[in-house]
Write a structure and sequence with these properties.
The chain has one helix and 13 strands, in the order E-E-E-E-E-H-E-E-E-E-E-E-E-E. By secondary structure, it is mainly beta. It has two domains: 80 residues, no CATH class; 117 residues, Nucleoplasmin core domain (Jelly Rolls), CATH 2.60.120.340. The strands form four sheets. Strands 5, 7, 10, 11 and 13 form a five-stranded antiparallel beta sheet that branches. Strands 6-12-8-9 form a four-stranded antiparallel beta sheet, with no helix packed on it. Strands 1-2 form a two-stranded antiparallel ribbon. About 2% of the residues have low confidence.
């Protein structure tokens, strides 16, 4: 038996009984994975079967690795779908809120571009003394409501408002504030307001 060590090595222990020799060079990993499979920075090696690999080229900026059984190697690059987002809240005694706090209800500041998919408003009474006069809007800030713009008029009918399509404007740019604004003081029959806003991120 002959053993050749071409590069300087330390702490190498040679056992008396050698049963397998694995060739290691600049082009071959142990167990025979050929480095020539890699063709560009960011390439991934994906298993196909026992001791069999293939190259998965790097994806695009913003893409994520997704498991897909229809693909070679069961993996692919793509944009992951994000679950529909929702904001829900209950405002108690809106009549007093309007009279002593504010005419606006700040809902959220969006961190990226979004598209509205559903608006729902309800209250405790199907026959209130007056329907709710309220709009959903967007603005640049919450101090002077700069560049305020209407997203959707949300006036109730029989104490309820629901909309899932055909919005006045369903798009909100990242950094904008979304808020409700009363057009008139809510009737005292409105003991509370329950509101829901559903939306998706654009990317």
């Amino acid at each position: 038996m002959k053993i050749f060590v071409e590069d300087t090595a330390e702490n190498v222990v040679i056992e008396e009984n050698v049963t397998q020799v694995i060739e290691v060079s600049d082009a071959i990993f142990p167990e025979g994975i050929n480095l020539s499979v890699v063709q560009a920075e960011g390439d991934l090696l994906v298993g196909l079967a026992t001791e069999t690999v293939t190259r998965l080229p790097i994806g695009l900026n913003g893409e994520a690795l997704i498991v897909d059984s229809s693909q070679t190697g069961k993996l692919k690059w793509g944009t992951q779908s994000v679950a529909e987002q929702k904001i829900r809240f209950k405002l108690l005694d809106p009549n007093t809120y309007y009279g002593s706090v504010d005419t606006q209800i700040q809902v959220l500041r969006v961190d990226a571009d979004i598209t509205l998919t559903r608006i729902h408003i309800t209250g405790p009474d199907a026959t209130p003394g007056a329907e709710l006069d309220i709009d959903l809007k967007q603005a640049d800030d919450t101090t002077s409501w700069t560049n305020a713009a209407l997203l959707q008029a949300c006036d109730t009918t029989n104490g309820v408002f629901t909309k899932t399509s055909g919005f006045t404007d369903a798009t909100v740019a990242g950094g904008k504030y979304v808020y409700f604004e009363f057009g008139a003081q809510p009737h005292t029959d409105w003991k509370w307001i329950w509101a829901e806003i559903y939306y998706n991120y654009d990317s």
